Amino acid sequence: QVQLVESGGGLVQTGGSLRLTCAASGLTFGNYRLGWFRQAPGKERESVASISWSGSSYLDSVKGRFTISRDNAKNTVYLQMNSLKPEDTAVYYCAAKAVDRKSYDYWGQGTQVTVSS
């Protein structure tokens, strides 16, 4: 059974930093693209960042502030978030997609990130 468990969310002031962690189990980690998504109240879910063996990609509004990384030995993906803004407030979800699939197959339960002004 595949499980993705996020941690590291919380309350931070504008300009602060947080590091989100997603621990995966039940899958061959190296065969998956890992992504971070977020959903703010009243808004659609959006892709924040993703990473695979071929590289990483970012939402334009987080480029230069957020960094996604993965540790295949630990089956873990991270999202380092710096210079946080109130508009980054959302529930952040980790997701995994087999590299030959178009959509994400597995999702975590989410972790709340709140940035106060």
Any overview of this molecule?
The protein is an all-beta fold and 117 residues long. It starts with a strand and ends with a strand.
Average of the residue pLDDT scores: 96
Order of helices and strands: EEEEEEEEEEE
Look at the helices and sheets and give the structural class.
mainly beta
Strand residue content: over 45%
Distance between the termini: 40 Å
Helix proportion range: under 10%
Main beta-sheet annotation: 7 strands, mixed
Total number of helices: 0
Radius of gyration over C-alpha positions, nearest whole angstrom: 13 Å
Number of E-state strands: 11
Q: Overall 3D geometry?
A: globular
Low-pLDDT windows of residues: none
Outline of the structure:
This protein has no helices and eleven strands.
What is this structure's SSE topology?
Blueprint: E1 3-7, E2 10-13, E3 18-25, E4 32-39, E5 46-52, E6 55-58, E7 66-71, E8 76-81, E9 90-98, E10 106-107, E11 111-116
Parallel strand pairs: 2-11
Antiparallel strand pairs: 1-3, 3-8, 4-5, 4-9, 5-6, 7-8, 9-10, 9-11
